[in-house]
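Bumping with the actual sequence this time:
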Amino acid sequence: MTWLRTGWQVVQEHFGFGAIFDIALVAISVYFVLRLLRGTRAVQLLKGLLTLGALIVLTQSLGLFTLNWILKQALLPGVIALIILFQPELRLALEQIGRGHIFGAGLTSMRQEQITRLVDELVLSARQLSRERIGALMVIEREVGLNDVTQTGRRLDAVASADLLRTIFYPGTPLHDLAAVIRGDRLVAAGCLLPLTERRDVRGLLGTRHRAALGLSETTDAAIVVISEETGAVSLAVEGRLYSNLTPDVLKQRLLRILTPAPRAPRIRLRRRKDAA
């Protein structure tokens, strides 16, 4: 432990207690900000701003002064745009601070059997709702958090099942006309408002539910199952694309492919050879 004491003495001699305390406060503040932003779409733009900052430092060190000046001019408008575009996330962060919810709940990681069970329940509910021609919007959260979307609806936090989804979207119930958001294997909120797509080529062709599903898929990586109230057709919106008139088998295959995480490369462990005696 002598090296720890030596290191601590060196830090005290060069920085002092005030500087160490200041650095610790900054580190804790950054950590809390990242925890508050986690689970919102603002994380993606924050990564973009960090990348832009790294490019500014790199171009400065390489002597690329013209490109460095252009990047610096783009940094301030990017920060302003981040504040304007993500007012809901900032409001949510301030609300969490006021309520003392600094440590937000993380996104749920699921095992393969949980994913299969969830997909089976979604396909069963889609088949039932389609047969009865009941309109529905079922949002499955993936990597990009949807806390800003769930804040617009009613919190439920119940195990996602076909019976529960059919009950929520049954005509006449208070939450039937908007979207239900699923995180992991739990239905976290219903009656949620989704952003409509701004694409002009689909405004006259799609209804409000399909435009809302397409709009959310354009800004997040969520998968949205849509049931048409007029025709009973089942559609799936993901990555800015809308796949229509899906059969239950095709819907199940697509959902399994989308929600199942990619397999990780196996780690190679090196064993030490024992010296021959």
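The tokens above came from a reply further down the thread. The first strand starts at residue 136 and ends at 140.
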